[in-house]
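dumping this here before i forget
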Amino acid sequence: MSNVFVFTIDQVASRRRADQVPALLKELARFDAVIPFTRTVGDEVQGVVESPTNAVEICRLLMAENNWHTGIGIGGLKPEDRKLERSADGTSPSFALARDAVEAAKKKPGRSQLAVRAAESNTSQPAAERLEALLGLLNGVITARTPSQWKVINTVSHNSTATQVQIAEEVGMTQQGVAKSLAASLWRQELEVLPLLEHLFREAANVKTH
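structure:
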């Protein structure tokens, strides 16, 4: 069994809010998945990915939405489970780890949280603890951003070659305002930490870099 990342994702305060699962599934459909992301029951979504890069980007997506508790189970996937269309039918140990992780995430203070659980080994569990710590820090940064900061970040993300003057014209701010917004949102620091985050996903899953 090769190690994978099982995501179990549960909507925050779903009884008081509209169902956000269909919109999330559309967003998650762009990621290559071993088992596609689907609704399991109620407001819960589950899927399996193998790429540490995709795992990082899925976490960033969920953090930005600030609407989901996320559990990540890192462990083996049985060959027969790789043929599944719905991860809810899986019996690999990584599914139970993801379930434990999402329940742990729900118990953390704050609106939307993440937790990681890995199969027992000399390297996976310590790496999973480091991964969860860094995810928690990044989650705190991302979920604290204001709508104005997100407007600037989204514009920069879709216009990577644009100057700050051009960005300012597009969002209706001064160049100084754009610079202050990016600095306050820690956008540059988020981008700089992504290689470390991917490394920790690889380490927790014992995935070798080719």
